[in-house]
Amino acid sequence: xxxxxxxxxxxxxxxxxxxxAIQAAEEPSSASSDAEKAAFFTDRVEPILxxxxxxxxxxxxxxxxxxxxxxxxxxxxxxxxxxxxELDEPGESLLLxxxxxxxxxxxxxxxxxxxxxxxxxxxxxxGLPWGxxxxxxxxxxSHDSADSIAEVESWPFxxxxxxxxxxxxxxxxxxxxxxxxLLAKLEAEGLAPAPEADxxxxxxxxxxxxxxxxxxxxxxAAFVADESNDAYERLVDRLLxxxxxxxxxxxxxxxxxxxxxxxxxxxxxxxxxxxxxRDYVIDAFNHDKPYDRFIHEQLAGDEIAPDSxxxxxxxxxxxxGLWDDEPAxxxxxxxxxxxxxxxxxxxxxxxxxxxxxxxxxHKRDPIPQADYYRLLAFFIDMxxxxxxxxxxxxxxxxxKVLSVVEKGRAEPHVLLRGNxxxxxxxxxxxxxxxxxxxxxxxxxxxxxRRALAEWxxxxxxxxxxxxxANRLWQYHFGRGIVATPNDFGALGEPATHPELLDWLASxxxxxxxxxxxxxxxxxxxxxxxxSSKASAEGLARDPANQWFWRFPMRRLTAEEVRDSILxxxxxxxxxxxxxxxxxxxxxxxxxxxxxxxxxxxxxxxxEAARRSVYVHVKRSLLLPILATHDAxxxxxxxxxxxxxxxxxxxxxxxNGSFSNEQAAHxxxxxxxxxxxxLAEKVRRAIVLTTNxxxxxxxxxRDLEFARSLQSEHGLSEHEAxxxxxxxxxxxxxxxxxx
Amino acid sequence: xxxxxxxxxxxxxxxxxxxxEFLWQTGGGFTATALAGMFAGDGFLTRxxxxxxxxxxxVSPLAAxxxxxxxxxxxxxxxxxxxxxxxxxxxxxxxTLYGLDNKTIEIxxxxxxxxxxxxxxxxxxxxxxxxxxSGKMVSDLFPNLGTCVDDMAFxxxxxxxxxxxxxxxxxxxxxxxxSGNPCLGSWVTYGLGTENQNLPGFVVMLDETGGPISxxxxxxxxxxxxxxxxxVIRADDVPIHDLALPPGTDRATRRRLLDRLREKxxxxxxxxxxxxxxxxxxxxxxxxxxxxxxxxxAVDFARETEExxxxxxxxxxxxxxxxxxxxxxxxLVERGVRFVQIYSGGAHNDDNWxxxxxxxxxxxxxxxRTDKPIAxxxxxxxxxxxxxxxxxxxxxEFGRQPTxxxxxxxxxxxxxxxxxxxxxxxxxxxxxxxxxxxxLGSAAVEDRCHVRNLHATILNQLGFDPNALSxxxxxxxxxxxxxxxxxxxxxxx
Lengths: 738, 493
Prior knowledge:
Number of helices of chain A: 31
CATH class of chain B: Alpha Beta
Number of helices of chain B: 13
Helix content of chain A: 40-55%
Mean pLDDT of chain A: 90
Shape of chain A: globular
Oligomer: heterodimer
Strand content of chain A: under 5%
């Protein structure tokens, strides 16, 4: 808006609001006439506003910080930080603080000249006269309509009510209510579920799903040959009882909480004993710890069970984030660390983007800014722990743990615009108002985190069970019923099967939050056993498979890629738990560090061959094979892994030292295990990498390849076998699951 | 552009997000077969779906894209002076400061040593002299760059939010003090892809002494997929990690392996023909094979003349290393690489521009290693007609204080209140100067430019509205310039 335009708008307001001159009557008697004041505004003030402020605060559609300066009301109402001007105490006006560069720095392009600041000061003291006709000082109309907080409308913020199981036509497909919910939608869409997958596909799918590892050839053979009615059921039970189940599903949880073993930033120093938290998570899944207890221990282990080592370790949940040992601004760094906790807690347990309300009310979801600081208030008394501080459990001889202790009582406040120097109203600890149907009150005293944990797992909480049931579905079926599992709000995806999700959430709670029971129910369904093969009809009607008419294929995860290569080569060390290991990293990659090799003392070979969940998670240095296959980012909650396909993955798997070394081990393993000819070795390589029998001509053609390396390229039989093993580790049939 | 939130066509949205954002967000990646059918109208996915025939060429997520606005620059070369060069000793001429040498004055500073209210002035240690038609004053540290000033535009009023290396590096590279956010190069390749699929789109060259503090966090794609992260490339025979065949493997053997692998993968695909991800993976192996052939060509200087090499200082020991990197940068942008970042300085202390004890020794060394190569780069790009479409950015994570850090010596502490960057090419007005620090150079006072304004300027030159280029993550349309947004530096463009 140009100068003339501004005046024109002001004139219109003046006409609209004629006679509103109350403010003038309250002016100090020393003030000059209205006309003089209007002239002061027009001649002195308006040019400053126009030249330095208006561009970002009212013109060109920009309203930075929520503040408009193109009307008197704009100043009085102010922006995200509250009123810009205090008529009662002009000297206290935020506007003047900003112009003086005290806390805020406005205009950002450079401090105004002293005379200009004096002009604005005088203007405020005069009562903020505005230009216009005949001395009237029009109050502008409100510009603001869209900023009000969204209403609580519907699912998913409504209480969970167990829905009835629908009736369906093809009832012989139904093994459990999950199938009925899915089939009801499929029938409505005119789709038929895919037939059941074959046994080899099922055992491969189940083994990776539950343990992150391939089945052994013997396990495959036994399952294929098992003719008993409960063969599949027993397979599910065996895998759920495997200690590797916790390693696979624990890793999902570590993704969610943003698990890292270093503090990030300049030194990226190691977090001492953080691996105990990783082991706690793995053990929790293996021992089928109820999900409510799992939450209680992580959020309030110190409060609910001060004598339990396990519960102390669980509170390591709070200690996983980034920590800047040399912050430019300590209060800011402290609130950044607390923000990590608040945002994660919102994402992980509630599927809500509460972090978006740090600086202002959530734009789309019913989350006012105060909710953010009320939630933060639960954590504020333990917010000062450094990234290195450990606590000795049970006296001097006890183990050291990365846990939390409360340190005094801080007074929680809203921070205006998230700025730690702009202290807003005091708040009490509290939970997101949109889903707090009982208006729960919380004390600020010790035990408040326990109260929070109990509120989260109360039967009336609409989010906790829904969010976790959705995650279970997602990790089994590749996509959540809500495809944005950390965001159930307006910017997330709508649920494809909300009734099914509510039914699963009800089952979770009614089954005392036991997780293995939920797995079992999902895995025994007909839905889970479907083939991934497409039907023409399915592809035509629902190519995205949003109604789950077939089982979705997927690539192995980063950890599965590495673990499967080690499993095939025979090098995988299945030892569980303990401090993390550091497999070798090529020098060219270490060269990216400011001190190459720092924080990465390479483990001996047998330790370096342990499962990927035990590989040290150094924030600034990830193991290349994990990084290129889309391992979780360590700096925030990772609800869904990306799956990218790029040539650098091929370069790494074909040329990298890890895959070539493992191909050599793989070849030696085949030579040891197979007494027969090269054909037998090739056959076994196929079985080990794909869990299926080779097709009739497949071995012959693979042999032809290996023989040609010998005859045409001068390789020895062993060298040719190594090349064949490298090929097998690069095949899509190895890296993808049906 | 579908990812321009400000110009989303109504049909291109998927629940408040563009289609591609949705795909990334839900973990589908560019080969999100499971979702492909939802977006049949999206050209990008249509190509992916068609690739399922096994014959259609691989379409990379980095395929070149057209920006929404007319672009001045096609590629960026960011010369990162890690450690923080002193603006008052390089390009920000402060005549008053000479006379105050060694005098203790009242001055507000904030550096590694904390906040102070007084300090001992270290007068500038080099003479400044005017260059070019613009008469720009440049210190004797840069006699070669001095001859290029009419092609350069200086911003003397930069400010940042942290005077600590780790967070300041993240600020300059990703716009945020906290790690986990995509870097400038990631945003650019996300928005524009890259024009040569045989080379990475976002390339980083490190100093011979090592990487900067926080290492790979400085070229991380953060919450974006890893395809947008920087690739470290070296100016030697094996420029990219894992590019060389492993010892004992020759090219013919590898070709034979790839042929058999392709057969096996195609048989696997035949029963799963609707899965374009499998086809993409087959194609990615061919592309990798081509990269092995073409990437070494990019770093092979055999066909560069001696005159050209000399222009970059490759014939002199002190400038050879940085000169090779600058020449490689030209060769990379010639070949369509979108974003090249070269670090001057690595590791810690005086291995980079972090002159805490002796500004003369430190800056003589680092300017001496880079002055000739950078001037050569500008001149070479210009005579080849490439400067117009290549945006060069020079700067560190902050500047340095006009006062000494210690009681003795000429070292200066960090200064994020005011520092200088310069830009050249890519539609930037040469010979201009924007903004100013106070007369001592302690803080930006006139036309102050936040790091975000610099980022906005770079995106603007590439054809983006910096306040519209967004990526949906964590419940927000994330932007390089942050939720508050930032304007390009108008006087530069």
